[in-house]
Amino acid sequence: MASVMLRILLLLVTLPLSTKAQTNGNLTLGSLLTADDRNSSWLSPSGEFAIGFRKMGQGAHLLAIWFEKVEDKTIVWSANGNNLAPEGSKIQLTANGRLVLADPNGGELWSPSPTVAGIAYASMLDTGNFVLVGQNYVNLWETFSQPTDTMLPTQQLDQGTKVNARYSEMNYSTGRFHFKLGDDGNLAFYATRDPWVASDTYWVSNTKDSGFRLIFNQSGQVYLTTRNGTLLKLITSDTVPTSEFYQRTILEYDGVFRQYVYPKLANSSSGRAMGWSMVSSPVPPNICKSISQTMGSGACGFNNYCVLGDDQRPRCLCPPGYTLLDSTNEMSGCRQDFVPQSCDGSRPETNQFALHEMLHTNWPMYDYERTAAQTEDRCREVCLADCFCAVVIFSGRTCWKKKLPLSNGRMDPSEIGKALIKVRINNSTSKSMGNGNKNSTLIIIGSVLLSSSVFVNLLLLLITYLIYRSFRSRDSKLSRPVQINQATGMQTFTYQELQEATNQFKEELGKGAFGTVYKGVLRSEYTNFVAVKLIATRTGESEKEFEREVIAIGQTNHKNLVQLLGYCNEGQHRLLVYELMSNGTLADFLFGASRPSWYRRIEIACDVARGLSYLHDDCTRHIIHCDIKPQNILLDGSLTAKISDFGLAKLLMANQTRTTTGVKGTRGYLAPEWFRNMPISTKVDVYSFGILLVELICCRKNYKPESEIEAQILLVDWAYDCYHNGSILKLVESDDEASSDIKRVGRFVMTALWCIQEDPSLRPTMKKITQMLEGAVEVPVPPVSSSFISSV
């Protein structure tokens, strides 16, 4: 007996030393979890559910509940999707009886709403419900009554409860779709977060004055009941035993409510198929046809069209001549890939456009003109002759003309008409790329003057021979093709091909430190304009730049990076062939005579941020650009911004986060660590982007020595002063569009101030910055950088 008691005592003494973050049972006051790489969590008694932190990217964590025994740890509830927690944040059941998610500095990021106090303990239940319990054992708060996008068996939703879809599959911030059991008894699905027009409702239960509660029972059915508990309407009808399957229903980011099951023996040797399977019919069954908004884009983004796939899932596609705004999100909408038709009557462009036919396709509503054309040919004529016409629908001998942006797009057999999409036949443009002068590079030939003196003749001949040998040796080395083993699969060109393509390098587009860019045309069925960069200076550094650029950009594929089509590596010739960016550099666009619109500058800022985020996190080998500035951001025909000029780029190995190198880049955009002999990381690009962002906000260069007001000479210092003094409006006071969007201006300024922190570790990642700019996460108050202290 004494031996048993001793073992129990030893167990009690050593228990705190071996306790892990993953604990089962009730959580007492003082319990806490920390957001770190260990994915700490609190488990339900059976271990089937867990609540804790899930890593959402570098240094960002989501407080969530998930299926612990399902292979992909499927999340069913989350607290802070709109405000991810930084590394080192804590969720704690405090000594005074509150549940608080706090950042490393103690700032509160989230707590249950409405405010809950007097908690005695908390518990993660086997149902997937996390509850906060008071002294009298009454539930003070539970996640089942505060759902995000998912319902679980035994969960019940009362009138007034809202369920929000997430923004995308991996982005847990609030999306545009939600459903709500209203006080009138109707369960309704909405296409916007805050509906205020009737067309935002795309599915309704038609249970007005009767519906009281939405229930997900243990048999796998979701249904509405009346106040006295009588079954009123089935939402999903399949019955699935919870003893054999995990179950969930979810309003997904595409706006469709679906039910899934996962066999509990999926990971055993039973041979059952692994993964979630959809059961019951989705609600609504065809969202492509269900949404027709009078204000808004419809089921997909603007200029998209929606198609229901064989798997009953909607696909959002772009019509001919259009591409996605965001290649990672097909619901983001589409943009034109060509220069729109001119409305200048003095130079009609009717013959420059053609109409592509799409059967069973329509963008209903938003017609601006109807014409009784009688024939399709006549319908085509009236659209081609109208510079506002982007699409014309021919149906029932009638033309329905539409202009951009297109909304409610759908392709479905029930659509009896056909859509005719206007696209430019030859997307040529005379706009220049770059800001170099038009003078050809002069070739300086040195000559050796030989003395006629008899006494020094032999000596001079010997010296001349040695110099000749030296030059021949150097030329031989430079004539060897650069070894580009990593750029496999890219098209190579001969020097003669590129001579012909550029008409003997006739039309110069711009000039840089290592070469000149010329306009060219490649032989193809359609005219394909390109930009050909001729590396002019034959030096070791120019050879390295050529190699770096081919290797770096040759491994990338993103809509916000200039596409390298191929290169010439023949003998002494080094040339790079890029897609032609017809609207030149951001420097010309931003600092020119006319100021670009605020909303165009917003798009450009987000474009550059997405491009850098891709380089830093999503490439096979992470890339530091090292020279982000307006001159290295190019604009295509649709004014989409693309990062160019990778000649100074540094490639990191998969396990490498920083590197050492000499000072590179352009003064005014260089991070402080360049001048301090410190290892550089992707944070140097973040700093440069911060300077660029302030320039985009204010539409002026960072350094303006001619400014009449001394405080405004350095733009970033002035921006900080305005932010610190609460006078951000001064930065954009002459810009009516930006002034009317001052909340976003403030968010952009705060983001820029985070980017240009002197300490690289304080600067956010480009992925986080992209979320800040898009409004997906809140922007915390930036700290005071030591470089600004003197101005405070």
Automatic annotation (TrEMBL):
Sequence intervals crossing the membrane: 442-468
Enzyme class per UniProt: transferase
Domain Protein kinase: 503-789
Catalytic activities: L-threonyl-[protein] + ATP = O-phospho-L-threonyl-[protein] + ADP + H(+); L-seryl-[protein] + ATP = O-phospho-L-seryl-[protein] + ADP + H(+)
Disulfide bond among keywords: yes
Residues spanning the signal sequence: 1-21
Assigned GO CC terms: membrane
Name of the protein: Receptor-like serine/threonine-protein kinase
Organism for this UniProt entry: Eucalyptus globulus (Tasmanian blue gum)
